[in-house]
Specification:
Blueprint: E1 13-17, E2 23-28, E3 31-36, E4 41-46, E5 50-57, E6 63-73, E7 79-84, E8 89-95, E9 102-106, E10 109-113, E11 117-122, E12 128-134, E13 144-145, E14 153-157, E15 163-168, H1 171-174, E16 183-186, E17 192-197, E18 203-208, E19 213-218, E20 224-229, E21 237-242, E22 248-253, E23 257-262, H2 288-291, E24 294-295, E25 298-301, E26 308-314, E27 317-322, E28 326-332, E29 340-347
Parallel strand pairs: 20-24
Antiparallel strand pairs: 1-2, 2-3, 3-4, 5-6, 6-7, 7-8, 9-10, 10-11, 11-12, 13-14, 14-15, 15-16, 17-18, 18-19, 19-20, 21-22, 22-23, 23-25, 26-27, 27-28, 28-29
Length: about 350
């Protein structure tokens, strides 16, 4: 999803969790801020980079990637800046001819998304370009990269509407990418709006611009694993995130609701009381998609139309962070009862710096 570059006082944009959801970063009118997720603590405030529109953490390492934007940028929006927080300085820059729309980063790779192209670089021990992939127009910078060290899988919208492409982006695999047919999954009828890989790269979750359904596919077999119904009305999805064990998935949207779905134990999800009206094996007519769908096992509300990113800080804990600074922590029951309880509310933008050390 494209980052918002026009800041409001007391607001944040480009909300991003790191690999294990243990910390998160955001862009504000004063620069980049980094927080510990649970317990909530502000760990770093970086003003040397000016205001930014994109920020990406690499685990809990000292490397941070940013793209300038907002009210006081120091560089063009076509430059990716790598900041080493242990040295408090810029250690590398990648310059392009078009605006950068998204970045994904792990120790082995940096992926940079432009409007019609994706560039892939080796990161450590030194930055080297591995490949450039032409894509369909992707103005929202839609993509995700598996963060597991043993699986270099990238997913992004394919040329066919509603489909996604799965690409292995290791150096060895990329040397043959031009001569092999693309691996795609037909996910939706409408254009793809958001994608998310689980931590192992075994599943990919997708949703379209309609925002009513979230589908989960096996990345090896390219088969449909589950279909979840967020709601009946169209919505803009802000985030999709798997739990670290891939057992659950949470979805945030502009409706001001975070929905929780069970991936590995689908009987925990709710079904319509009318589902028995539709005979098994029949088309079921116009009601069938609604009464036979899997609905959220639990949900909670956040400020409506306030960009929100939600993730699992533990197996049964969800944290939602919002552009107005709202921080929600919910505990849910894993027995399928649908019980969910708010454990904490705070405003992360109003926190005083809790630690002066670079230990995020």
């Amino acid at each position: 999803m494209a980052s918002v570059s026009n800041f409001k006082i007391g607001s944040a944009s480009a909300l991003k969790f790191n690999k294990d959801f243990g910390c998160f970063a955001c862009c504000t009118e004063s620069g980049v801020q980094i927080f510990n997720t649970d317990p909530l603590q502000e760990k770093r405030k970086i003003s040397e980079l000016g205001t930014c529109s994109i920020v990406q953490l690499m685990g809990r390492s000292n490397f941070i990637a940013v793209v300038s934007g907002g009210k006081a940028p120091i560089l063009e929006d076509s430059v990716v800046t790598i900041w080493d927080d242990a040295k408090s300085k810029i250690v590398s820059q990648l310059k392009f001819n078009e605006p950068v729309l998204n970045i994904k980063m792990k120790p082995s790779l940096i992926v940079v998304v432009l409007p019609t192209r994706i560039h892939i670089f080796q990161f450590l021990p030194e930055i080297q370009k591995l490949a450039s992939i032409d894509t369909k127009e992707n103005l929202s910078g839609i993509c995700d990269l598996c963060m597991d060290s043993g699986k270099d899988l990238l997913v992004f919208p394919a040329h066919r509407v509603g489909s996604v492409q799965l690409l292995t982006v290791s150096a060895a695999a990329l040397s043959h990418v031009v001569s092999t047919a693309p691996v795609t999954v037909a996910a939706h009828k409408n254009p793809v709006a958001i994608v998310a890989l689980d931590s192992a790269g075994s599943y990919v979750a997708t949703a379209s611009t309609k925002g009513t359904l979230v589908r989960v596919f096996d990345t090896t077999q390219r088969s449909l694993v589950a279909e979840f119904r967020r709601g009946a009305d169209s919505a803009t999805l802000y985030s999709i995130s798997f739990s670290l064990d891939s057992a659950y998935l949470c979805v945030s949207s502009d409706k001001g609701t975070v929905h929780l779905f069970a991936v590995k134990h689908p009987l925990q999800n709710r079904r319509s009381n009318l589902r028995h009206v539709v005979p098994q094996g029949s088309s079921g007519g116009i009601l069938a998609p609604y009464v036979t769908s899997q609905w959220a096992v639990a949900s909670f509300t956040t400020p409506a139309e306030c960009p929100t990113t939600a993730a699992f800080s533990s197996h049964n804990t969800i944290v939602a962070i919002c552009s107005d600074g709202s921080y929600f922590k919910y505990i849910f029951s894993v027995d399928g009862s649908g019980l969910i309880k708010r454990e904490m509310y705070d405003n992360f933008l109003q926190l005083a710096l809790s630690s002066p050390e670079n230990d995020f």
